[in-house]
Amino acid sequence: MPLIPEEPQIHESAQGPRATPASGRTAPTPRPVPGPRPAAPPRPGRPGPVRPAPPAQRTPRDATAAAEPVPPKPAAAVADGTRIQLIPASVQGALDAAEEAVDLLLDSGRAPGDVLVITTGEPHPWVTHELSFGEASYWALHDAGDDVFHTDVAGAERAGARPVVVVAVNGGSESVTASALSAAHAKATALLIVCGDPKRINSVMSAGV
Q1: Residue 195 and residue 119: Cα distance in Å, rounded?
Q2: Could you tell me where the DSSP H helices lie in 81-168?
Q3: Looking at the whole model, is its pTM more than 0.90?
Q4: What pLDDT was estimated at residue 134?
Q5: Helices (H), the chain
Q6: Which end of the chain has fewer CB atoms surrounding its CB within 10 Å, N or C?
Q7: In angstroms, rounded to a whole number, what is the distance separating the alpha carbons of residues 141 and 42?
Q8: Helix axes 174-187, 198-206, angle to 10 degrees
Q9: How many whole angstroms separate alpha carbon 122 and alpha carbon 3?
Q10: Is 176 helix (H, G, I), strand (E, B) or coil?
C-alpha cells in the first residue's frame, strides 16, 4: 500500500532571523503579510490519512488473487437482488479460483458461516475427508453453520441458503453444471460467484438458470 510521504517539519527558524538593533535589545519579529493559511502538515510520526488499497491489491491468506470478491468485472444485479460474479478459470483451475474467492471473502470480513462452496466435478478434498467420518457428522457441520461448507451438486439440493455461494465448475456435464448453477442461485441470498469457463457458464445460464 503506497504511503503518503511526510512533509518536512517546519522549524521556528524558518520564520527568518530576529533583527537586533545597536542597543542590543531584541526587536519584535516583523509580522508576515496576511494571506490564506496552508493546511497544517502531518506531525512527525503521525502520517496523514492513507486510502485503503483497492480490492484488486488485496492478498488472501494462502495465495495471491486478483480481486475481491475476485472477478475482473463488476457484479451484475439480477431481479431478485442477488449479485452474480464470474471468475474465468479452466476446468483444472476452477477449484483453486473458488478457494481464492473464499479467502478474499473471509479477509474482507465475511463470516465463514456465510459461505457455501459447490463443485460440479471432483469433490473438494475437505468433503472427502469429512465424509470419511460418516454423513451424519458431515451434515452436522453444515447445520452448525459456523464454517465454510463444501458440497457437490447432489448435496447442494440439501444445503440451506447462505448469503454467498461459490460454484467451482471443475468438471461434469452441462446438465450437472446447470443443476449446480440453479441450486446455487436458489441458495445465494446476496452473492453468487461462479468460477469456470465463461463461454460454458454463459451458455448454461442463458438456457434458463
Answers
A1: 10
A2: 94-107, 125-131, 135-144, 153-158
A3: no
A4: 96
A5: 94-107, 125-131, 135-144, 153-158, 174-187, 198-206
A6: N
A7: 50
A8: 70
A9: 44
A10: helix
